[in-house]
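User: I'm putting together a small comparison set for a docking exercise, and I want a reference complex before I start. The sequence is below, and the ligand is magnesium ion. Could you produce the 3D structure with the ligand included, as structure tokens?
Assistant: Of course. I'll restate your input first, then give the structure tokens for the complex.
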Amino acid sequence: MIYGIISYFRSLLIVGFLVIFSFIGYVYLLGIDYKMKLDFLYFLLSVSAVLITYFYARYWKYIVMPYSLNFHSIFSHNTLIETRNKRTLFLDYFVSKEKMKPKSVIEQIYTKDLKRFSLEYSNFTSIDIENYRQSAEKILHYLGLIDKRFEVSIYPQKSKSVQLSFYKLPEFYEIEMGIFKKDHLLLGIYEKGFYYRSLDTLDHHLIVGESGSGKSNFMHLLNINFLFNMHRINKMYMIDLKGGVELKAYENIDKVEFVSDIERLDALLDDVLLDLKQTQELMLKTGVRKLNNFTLLIFDEIGAVSVYPDKKIRESIFNKLALIAMQGRSSGILLFLFGQKIDNTILPTSVVNNIQSRVLMKTTSDYNINIIDLKDNIRERITATEIQDFNKGRAILKDGLTSDKHLVQFPFISDSFLSSILSYYSKK
Ligand SMILES: Nc1ncnc2c1ncn2[C@@H]1O[C@H](COP(=O)(O)OP(=O)(O)OP(=O)(O)O)[C@@H](O)[C@H]1O
Ligand SMILES: [Mg+2]
């Protein structure tokens, strides 16, 4: 409080002096008697005072935040006169607050529930970004944003500034056909708007979350994306070994094969591996390094394999999956594995370690949390919400190519939306 008031008066003084100096320069240059223009000087002084007061009143909590949370840099210097180290404290200062705008009109319409703004802070000597990162939750608390379920990301700006990007994802929104994009997967809304993943760099995905977290809903989102990009798909295997009906609904679509029997799956994986081998040979011969089209294996509940009583079949399937995980990517043969819990009794590390893109939904299991490398308090850098408190459709998504991690909200896909899509794409 005291700091804020001192800073306010200091700003008044500095700007006051600046105005007076400019005024002196102005009358001197034009060679007029300053007394004639005193009214003008008073006018300028009052306008600047009003502007500064307005600025301080409006941004008060942002201005005093660095002081309250101890954001500063220490500048050590040796003077010739004094040999001992002298240290000066430079407090970070508030620069600006901005509203972030959507990239396009379509985004503006569909992401209207995504709230965001950013703050910029600077320092005269240097800025300690790490300090901000570690204090992310404190910042949200201090600004009263934690209860409003805002999140914050911290980015370096120029050399001596930091940008705090605040955002609140929608908790619920429905899917719309208009937001799908050719040659991309629409994966939801994140900090910066729609989250798209290019098909050109697509890799294997592992998706984990407890029952009811929204995995199947996300699986339908992926499937609809693939249907929308059918020109890039050779074949989609939809595998559900727990007797579910969710994937069966896709059965009548061209290029889709529904698999519900584990022995059938085992045989089918042989076909996929044969295909993989032939593709690799062809690629070697023609010198092509990556294929544009995909064969997809989508598993709802991979855990169903590990509980199957016949050990031989289990091992056979896992060995084949490990091969596909290791070699399939460049041949366009991709795995999408969904599971409630992933540890090495459920899915061998030879499979897990070769799946680079990961999606973590609501869970209390540390095994699950580990699959997305959230060690060393990294979770706190991504979200202020504990993973066990995630709402339905909320996820941390790790891009296997860049290793970037983002908090994402998936759209809700209603039964009626899904059935209209399915009947549109079903064989006539
Ligand atoms: N993105 C979302 N937005 C809002 N509600 C959702 C979202 N995703 C899922 N839900 C709701 O949560 C319920 C459970 O979702 P879903 O069936 O996808 O969970 P799951 O993780 O597949 O569970 P299980 O492991 O038991 O199969 C759904 O009935 C749906 O109503
Ligand atoms: Mg499910």
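The chain has three domains: 2-67, 74-168, 177-425. DSSP finds 13 helices and 16 strands in the chain.
User: Thanks, that's exactly what I needed.
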